[in-house]
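Comment on both lines for my students:
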Amino acid sequence: MLAAVVIRLVRRKPLGAFGALVFVVFLACGIFAGALAPHGMNEINPLYRMKPPSLTFPLGTDNLGRDMLSRILYGARLSVIIGFCAAGLATALSVVLGLTTGYLGGRFDLVMQRFVDAWMTFPDLVILIAVVSVVGPGMLQLIVTLGLLYGIAGSRIIRGAVVAVREDLYVHAAQSLGARTFRILWLHILPNVLPPIIVLFTTRVGIVILAEAGLSFLGLGVPPPAPTWGGMLAGSGRAYMYQGPWLALAPGLCLTIVVYAINMFGDALRDVLDPRMRGAG
C-alpha cells in the first residue's frame, strides 16, 4: 500500500515527490541536529564574528561569532518538535470535533458549527499574540496555542468528509444492525476519512512552522538563547543584514523552502489519495 502510494506520487506528481524529499531531509536535520552540527548552537568565538560563507563556515557566522549552519540545524530541531506536536494536536482535535459533529448532526452540529464560525472570524495572528502575551512565550505554550487555533478551524474539513461518508450504505447497514455510535465512528467512518486527515496533518505542519517563525520574529516565540529561524531573522538578521546579508538569507531561505516543500507535498498527497482524482490527467 505504501509502496503503491509512493510510486503514484513519483510518477504523477514529481514536484510533490521533490517536496516529500525536502520534507524528509528537513526531518533528518531536525532529528540529528546534534550529530550534524559542526559547532554548538551558542558557541561564541569573537575571532570569527561576521565571517562570510566559506569552506570553514558554509553559511557564515553572526555578530557574536556563532556558526550559522549549526544554528540553522538546531533551529530545524525546534521547528520539527513544535511543528509535529502542534500539528498532531490540531489534527486530533479536528478529528474529534469533525467526527462527532458530522455524524451526530442536529442541534449539536448547529451549535458547534456556529462556534467554529465565530472562532474563524478572528485573525490567527491576533489570537496568537493575545494568548502568548497572557500565558508567556515558551515551547509548550506555543504547541498548545497553535494546536487549539488550527484544530478548531480544521474541524470543518473533517466534518465535510464525514457528512459525505455517513450516507453510504455500509454505515446504514451498521446502524440497522444496532452497532454503537463509537463502533461506527471507529470502524466505518474514520478509515474512510483518513486521506483528508493525512493531508490536513501535512499542511498543518507547514502552517505551524510559519506561525512559529512569525511569533519568534515578534519576540513571542521560544525565548533565547534557543535558536529559531524567526528569532534569527528578528535578531542579528535584521540588525546586521546590510553588513552580512547571509544572516537574513540563511534562515529566510530555509523557512521558505521547507514550508513550500511541505505544501507541495500535502497538495500532491491529497491528489494521490483521493480516489476521485486518480482518473484525472
